TrEMBL record:
The chain crosses the membrane at residues 20-38, 45-63, 83-107, 119-138, 176-197, 204-225, 245-267, 316-335, 341-361, 368-387, 393-412, 424-447. The keyword Membrane applies. The keyword Membrane applies. Keywords: Membrane, Transmembrane, Transmembrane helix. Pfam families: DUF3100. This is Branched-chain amino acid ABC transporter permease. It comes from Pandoraea faecigallinarum.
Amino acid sequence: MEQKAAKPQGGAFSDGVRLYVWAIVILVIAELIGAISIKAGHGKIVLLPMVWALLLGAALGLSQARLPRFAQIDLPMQHKAAAILQPALLLFVAKLGLLVGGSLPKLVAAGWALVFQEFGHFVGTIILGLPVALMLGIKREAIGATFSVGREPSLAIIGEKYGFDSPEGRGVLAEYLTGTIFGAVFISLFAGFVASLNLFHPHSLAMGAGVGSGSMMAAAAGAIAAQQTPEVAKEVATFAAASNLITTTIGTYFTLFISLPLAVWGYRVMEPVLGRISKRGRANAEAAAVEDAEAAKELKNASTAHTVEMNFGARLFAWVFSGALALVGNSMAFKTPFLDGVPGMLIIIGAVIVGEVLYFVTRRKVPAVCWVSLIAMFLTSPAFPFAPVVEQFTGKINFLALVTPMLTYAGLSVAKDVPAFRRLGWRIVVVSFLANAGTFLGAAIIAEFFHV
């Protein structure tokens, strides 16, 4: 079915009343449900409010046809939710930057662990994902699907080198969509389970959480931090933020010059052996290629349709509203009075605004995420004379309180991608999960080696 292009969103609230109302309802319900632990062998799976928020948002979007018109989150609203997700993410990035600035000595003390764990992020995806992808009958699509976790920088690299109509392009698009729909939920459950086994130091797990995706990093760090003491939980957030910042900056060069060539070499070596194990076999390769090409067309349309542009007024409203949601969650989950958190939230929003201004002043050459991180880090660093005051106010807001609103928007936006995703089948889900697990474990193992 042909989709109409969405109009630029000039108004901050006019067309999105239902979206914002549902965001409040979902967040309150998620916080009321709270954290639930499920025993799983020697470990446990922890379902945090942020996971409930994502699942409730997704369920609402998927069931919109069964709801009365006034309660529906239709396709334009789902795309608006996806657009709001980025401003909401910047609030979380600012909070993490504030934690990093005050913990710079601990990060310096981590030394080589923080430096070399980056290799694990971009090699772990291949070690776990590529062999299984080949055994499942996936051909050159396996390169695009397993050389990284398939976030925006990876899309750009593959698009430039191979084009999105290539097998490699279809693979990275499939990984991108799978990660968008399932990534945060999976990495939260997986990271929480690994943390419950007590095999790794919390700092190592935190570094593993910095996979290069804001929502996935937030979900993983939150699941790990929830099983630690308050002081260690703060350190988990700090190391996860530092690792994620490395991954989103110099990590692009790792994917281009290390992991992508490694994936190409691994495919060339392993495909002749593992490709024969697949039931699909070489005789079905052409049929599989046609099938994947059709899915890729839908993926491409799903990735580019309904682009929503938010002007500064819309983004400002999103920051204020998301900040208010975070304060509601903060008061419910961590018993901090709403008004006590307002000064700290104003500082966080201020850091985001300054970062956005610098982003546009520098002609978007440096990502807004980096500017916001640097500004926030400076506010709590020893170089800023009022750092203790800033730390006192912002310390009243738990970083997990900022995750739940973000994943609420992510959940409300998920349904728009499901039709395209259905064409991909279960194989790409398995490969994506293994790639995400590999990037987390690879970095955690390397960090643990250097940490010890």
